[in-house]
Write a structure and sequence with these properties.
Helix content: 25-40%
Distance between the termini: 40 Å
Number of helices: 10
Strand order of the largest sheet: 1-2-4-3-5-16-6-15
Shape: elongated
Largest sheet: 8 strands, mixed
Radius of gyration: 24 Å
Length: 402
């Protein structure tokens, strides 16, 4: 933790003072979750807890960007607003009051932590202004982060870096992963439609069975990763749904498979998609059928800025959090759209300790994790501010030398 002689000490102290209010906000948000695309109530609840004297910019439908501090270069901190279509099974008094909708991914924790940081910066000041990014539609398409990034609002607000944090039950409580480089995979969904010639199940020789053809396709796809990609580069291809026909004595005219492709390198992402189309077509053709492949292109690779990660690591340690040396996963997050345009840092905050996994109806991080996420976001914010100061000093020095 910072000492009294450290200019950041006031910020850390004010952050700690605001945590009880942040936890209370977390409970309110958790009890009234809003699904993707319908986050206006959540947005307004969070705006009421934020200092908005310098203006609010509405963006991405139900999203908003709030400037905390005077005009000029700033650091953006993201908080996601949407909940999941999950029926809660936690049993707490502040459980979801909306049937079938739940904050099962920790977004309530992230938002509460963001308000604590923004309030602290507003109250005691910060090294640079802060942009509180209230993002809709993290869990579904079209991506809220992509829409915010493409809107250009962050550039107009002088954004120098974007900071995010996500709870992660793969890590112990009190631990934060601050990993440079690629930390999350790209994610794309595919639909394969195999078309043949239907008919009576008693006369298979008069049909071109798309069910058999699709089965060949699914088996053939298993070699795309095991024999088609570098084993040192992570790629995941999963066929997750199959559907065909409706009667036991009828060979259907078509069969459909759906699934997902994830990759830790953009080159692998593109290569596997191209090969998937080729393999599906060839495998279906061996059975006298055709295959059509459609993609829904999702999040790109999430790449953490190495300088930000290096600058944030000692600050995390000083705050009392343990720093995990490495955490990468084939999960995806649309925070990656920010990392394509700005130096960005996604921190993973451990929650393990009796909790279920992400997206589970029983997943409920402890209220103590609001503090951990707030501290992680603060470390990222201060690291980004320090790097901005260093760049500014170098540019001014170069100008004077010239």
């Amino acid at each position: 933790m910072s000492t009294a002689s450290d200019p950041g000490a006031l910020l850390w102290a004010e952050l700690e003072r605001r945590l009880p209010d942040a936890v209370a906000l977390r409970h309110r948000l958790h009890a009234r979750p809003c699904p993707s695309g319908d986050e206006a109530e959540t947005r307004d609840e969070v705006l009421a807890a934020l200092p908005v004297r310098h203006g609010v910019t509405k963006v991405a439908g139900t999203g908003a960007v709030v400037r905390v501090g005077a005009p000029g270069p700033a650091v953006a901190v993201r908080g996601e607003m949407d909940a999941l279509d999950v029926t809660e099974e936690t049993g707490v008094s502040w459980a979801s009051r909306r049937p079938g909708v739940m904050h099962a991914c920790g977004h309530d924790v992230h938002l509460a932590a963001l308000t604590a940081l923004a309030g602290a910066v507003d109250r005691v000041g910060g090294p640079v202004p802060l942009l509180a990014v209230l993002q809709p539609r993290e869990e579904t398409y079209p991506s809220g982060a992509r829409e915010i990034a493409e809107d250009g609002v962050l550039e107009r607000e002088g954004c120098q870096a974007v900071i995010g944090a996500h709870v992660q039950p793969l890590l112990p409580a009190g631990t934060v992963a601050c990993t440079p480089g690629v930390v999350n995979a790209s994610s794309d969904e595919f639909t394969i439609t195999v078309r043949g010639q239907g008919g009576h199940a008693a006369y298979p020789h008069l049909t071109r069975d798309p069910v058999v053809a699709l089965s060949h396709v699914v088996v053939a796809l298993q070699t795309l990763v095991s024999r088609g990609t570098d084993p040192m580069s992570a790629v995941v291809l999963s066929v997750t749904t199959l559907s065909a026909g409706s009667a036991a004595n009828v060979v259907p005219g078509f069969a459909v498979a759906r699934g997902t492709v994830r990759a830790m390198r953009t080159a692998d992402r593109e290569a596997v998609q191209a090969r998937l189309v080729e393999v599906a077509s060839l495998a279906a053709r061996t059975q006298g059928c055709t295959a059509e492949v459609e993609f829904v292109h999702g999040e790109p690779v999430l790449d953490n800025d190495a300088s930000l990660a290096a600058a944030a690591t000692p600050l995390l340690g000083e705050s009392g959090l343990r720093v995990s040396p490495d955490l990468r996963s084939a999960g995806s997050d649309d925070f990656s759209y920010f990392s394509q345009r700005h130096p960005s840092l996604m921190l993973f905050v451990g929650t393990h300790g009796g909790t279920a996994q992400l997206h589970s109806p029983a997943y409920l991080p402890s209220d103590d994790r609001v503090r951990d996420v707030a501290y992680a976001l603060t470390a990222g914010y201060l690291a980004a501010a320090e790097l901005h100061r260093q760049r500014t000093d170098n540019e001014q020095g170069a100008h004077h030398d010239h």
